[in-house]
Amino acid sequence: MKDSYELVPGVMQGLDAAVARIIAPNAGVMTGPGTNTYLVGTHELIVIDPGPDDESHLRAILAAATGPIRWILCTHTHMDHAPGAARLKQLSGATVAAMVAPRTDHDFQLSVDRVLADGDVIECRDVTVRAVHTPGHASNHLCYLLEQNRMLFTGDHIMQGSTVVIWPPDGNMRAYMESLRSLLKLDLAVLAPGHGHLIGHPRDELNRLIEHRLRREDKIRQAVLRSGTGLTIETLLSSAYDDVSRSLHEWAALSLQAHLDKLVADGELRLIAGRYRSSS
Ligand SMILES: [Zn+2]
Hints:
This protein is α/β, with parallel strands linked by helices and 280 residues long. It contains 6 helices and 14 strands. The longest helix is centred in the C-terminal third of the chain and has 26 residues, at 202-227.
């Protein structure tokens, strides 16, 4: 894989023999350099995550295509990944496949031609992609495994350069951690995230991410245990996320809520009159 770890704007051909990447022009706090759209295949193409409904980006996808686009897959239906699917379908005649969007205010209500489930296979002339259900960031999140080279397109389950936000109630920390662990069972060569550049050594990265979440969970647990009388979510945010820039606390608060929901579900904490306390 040549130039695997470079991140350049515009079209990046040859991430692998059969994979190109185009970065959507939607850079930001949550999207990093922008959403990665991947083109998979040579004679017939699968597009993974068309991104926002941005005409210039969708035209760039068509221009980069080395053959007809047969499939448009979405890893999930958040606004930076899925809205371009409808227009790209119009322009290409491709079939849209994904899991159905949950009813949240941050999901695009995508019209899906083929509803996918864990293990479903999508085939083109020279490539085969398998859907891997990875709930956590979103309940309908799928990663896609390119069978030919063991590249896993991870959407927002794993990003490069930033920590994934878990946004309850559709986002679920317990499901997220289980999904990370489930990927350890797969034979993976490289991770192709929805934001940022390719990530090598997938097992190391998965273990690092699991440890990061466990450390955060323990920091929250210890803060509650020390408090005796329990802590509000506001107090917990400043103590358990003291290493995170204040400008990101609005987002950290969502993941904190997800951690707290998990600790309550695990029976470790109880929520009484707005304060989290130890169950023991
Ligand atoms: Zn995203």
